[in-house]
Amino acid sequence: MKTLFKNIKGLLQVRQESETLIKGKAMQDLPIINNAWLLVEDDIIADFGEMQSIPQKLERDLTIDASGKMMLPSWVDSHTHLVYAGNREQEFVDRIKGITYEEIAKKGGGIVNSAKKLQETSEEQLYKESLVRLEEVIRLGTGAIEIKSGYGLTTEAELKMLRVIKRLKQAYPISIKATFLGAHALPPKFKNDREGYISHIIEDMLPKIAEEKLADYIDIFCEDGYFTIKDTERILDAGNNYGLQGKIHVNQFNAIGGIKTGVDYNCLSVDHLEVLTDEDLKALKTGTTIPVSLPSCSLFLSIPYTPARKIIDADLPLALATDYNPGSTPSGNMNLVLSLACIKMNMTPEEAINAATVNAAHAMGLEKTHGSITRGKKANLILTKKVPSYGFLPYAFGSNHIDKILLGGKTIL
Ligand SMILES: N=CN[C@@H](CCC(=O)O)C(=O)O
Ligand SMILES: [Zn+2]
């Protein structure tokens, strides 16, 4: 099946080859072809160019006129917890009334609250609740997504979450990577035995997860009151033994050295970074670990935003993701993330789009197939409604600018 899109007002993020990470000043550059055509063949971007040089005889089954519309690669969301049970609306109201996220967690709410709900939910029910959210983010333009476990906190419940992620992978055309986050919080049973819980993760959970090949990456919440640097090292070492690279939660509330650990262990990404010291920045400069910012978490929890300018101005790359989860970010909307990055983190539209496409694809190991308009890459595409410019996408926040979604070359919307 060949589909031709013609008269595209702007074809964004056009790269000749799979790009390396985009860093520093280069993030200002968003390659675009104005008045373009693009040919999708089966599930692949086959060819594209300027309308004035469109081949005379271009074989196709379908032609779509995209006059006035922009086309760009689908968003890549490299950090989510989309599989969860129920919600935490009550904690939302508690926070409105003045109780902090940390206080709620200390009282047995937070992650442990979600874990209790999930343990009591059947795999079938969990699958049904999760697919609603997955379908929603697909409609919002996400074409690749990482999903973590971490609301199970028992072997059985962690396996249940990862099996649900596997079922979603099989059932939907969106590209999915799974991350094992057993070390998300201490379950009540191990309240006074953090090391015992880490051993449980390493000795009981990990071998089973590896045997069923349920995870692509490993994660830990490295934070005061959750897991220490030493725990992080143990988890990352154990993950490495099973070939699982780290993508870790660090510096959400405190800088305890997790970024340096992540870089030293060659993690693929270090995520959150709402708090960032000069030492953290220096550590990032010594390796290839990708910093990932989650601005809708900052919005929802009223905590600082990742200092994006500091990171980009230090000639580093930055990726953006949603962190979709029931406690700190009940939203999987990458369009909102884009707007927040511009409005709250002083990123330009070009930087934000690079961070949500090419760099985000790197942050989930999909840079060869996703994140840019490149011949041979997967035809996961967004066609916008008629808009005056690409800057209008983050500028006119809260509106839905999407006309069509393509996943694997097929029109989904
Ligand atoms: N910080 C750790 N984990 C999630 C939130 C977990 C929750 O509150 O349920 C996050 O990335 O924000
Ligand atoms: Zn998270």
From TrEMBL:
MF terms (GO), sorted A to Z: imidazolonepropionase activity; iron ion binding; zinc ion binding
Annotated positions binding 4-imidazolone-5-propanoate: R88, Y151, H184, Q252, S328
Name of the protein described by the UniProt record: Imidazolonepropionase
Pfam families per the UniProt record, alphabetical: Amidohydro_1 (PF01979)
GO terms for biological process, alphabetical: L-histidine catabolic process to glutamate and formamide; L-histidine catabolic process to glutamate and formate
InterPro entries documented for this protein: Amidohydro-rel, HutI, Metal-dep_hydrolase_composite, Metal_Hydrolase
Lineage: Bacteria, Pseudomonadati, Bacteroidota, Flavobacteriia, Flavobacteriales
Family: Belongs to the metallo-dependent hydrolases superfamily. HutI family.
UniProt cofactor(s): Zn(2+); Fe(3+)
Residues reported to bind Zn(2+): H79, H81, H249, D323
The Amidohydrolase-related domain, residue ranges: 70-411
The record's free-text note on cofactor binding: Binds 1 zinc or iron ion per subunit.
